[in-house]
Amino acid sequence: MTSSADLHHDMLTLVRRFDHPPESVFGAFTTAESCASWMCPAPGAQVRCDPFDFRPGGCSVTQMDFGSEGTWRSTDIYALVAPAQLILMHSRLEGPDGLESATVATLRFTPDAGGCVLRMTEQGAFASAESVAGQREGWDAMFDTLSAHLSESLARLNSRV
Belongs to which family (predicted)? Predict the structure, then answer.
């Protein structure tokens, strides 16, 4: 993103149902270890969440290193956190070519028949229409890996019982 003339303002919304309660889905966002295990769906990528300060006013930085394809860095500042209900954050995503997006994202966690519906809305400035599409694909892939992470965590917990 080189100038304000290059900005593409847009909004995207994704809704996903998980077969896990809101407390579990929300909980996956609350620690660096958990986030690092599902936030980057690309096999072989190196993920680091540091610093990680999940609280209102806190800041977390997630760095995803794709080797020869470059490094991506997401910086999130949490404006509101309501356990098992809501995360409101200001996000800045930088890729190998510079700033990809500067947005506000809202994640709402709603109970649904023993599971959880997660509604993510993100709006702001993107480098291009292609950046919006890439962001949508990224969130969708992250939700796939989040679902797998939650199922694996539950299976590990059940195997200990």
Answer: Belongs to the AHA1 family.
First to last CA, the chain: 51
User: DSSP class of residue 4?
Assistant: G
What's CA 19's distance to the chain center, in Å?
Answer: 18
Are 140 and 146 a contacting pair, CB within 8 Å?
A: no
- Edge-first strand order for the sheet with 59-65 is 8-18, 115-126, 98-112, 86-95, 71-82, 59-65, 46-52
φ and ψ of 142, to 5 deg: -65, -40
Alpha-carbon radius of gyration of the chain: 16
Q: Is the pTM of this model over 0.85?
A: yes
The tens digit of pLDDT for each residue in 116-145 reads: 999 999 999 999 999 999 999 999 999 999
Residue 43 is encoded by which pair of tokens?
């096999």
What the block records as the tokens of 51 is 């610093």
Give tens-digit pLDDT for 55-70: 999 999 999 999 998 9
